[in-house]
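ESCALATION

Customer reports they have been waiting on this structure for their group meeting. Please prioritize. Original submission:
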Amino acid sequence: MINNATAVSYINSMGDRSLTCKQITRELWVWCANHGIWLSAAHIPGKENVLADKESRKKHSDTEWKLNPELFGRIATLWGPVSIDLFASRLNYQLKLFFSWRPDPEAMAVDAFSLDWRGQRFHAFPPFSLINRVLQKVEQDQSQGIIIVPMWNTQVWFHRLLHLLIDFPVAVPKGPTTLLFPFNREKAHPLPIKAIIMQLYLGSAAKELKRKLKGIKTKD
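Update from on-call: job pushed to the front of the queue and completed.
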């Protein structure tokens, strides 16, 4: 049961004119044949496709906050373009290419931590509880990118964050529209009004360079 009429047609006809869709259909049918499965497809209206779309249709989640797109544009101008949005959804992404934390019909992939960040210049506005895991992943994959975090210098991850800095931190301008909630533009973020939000350009190469410089200084 599929809510995409084109997919229904390709499956039942075992292909059609589009070469890309035809190849996908062929791979599907070959897999079914190898496993002794006969496949048939029927159309179901999207509004009735409740079970399959249940997760992707959840909207009112407090994880959907996003940085004001205008402020995000300034970041891209400051440190150059980024290629992937690591923690987003179809409701709050800054880039068309994004990883979601649960199944999302528009996401490039699910669960950023299960993927390789190497070779990507990422943008990350992670849930605050995941900041330390993000920093660990940056070190592990030797990646670099821009991260948005609160200025919490008492947190266990703060020292690690400083070692990964490639450039000086920049404070995000504070205002009623700094952080937006897609479903209610008037809703205020739960962060205290005096909290400082930082945008930082970081990468594993910075930590290695600092280690080498420290070694040179020690020798001198």
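Sent to customer with the following note: The chain has two domains: 5-48, 66-219.
Escalation resolved.
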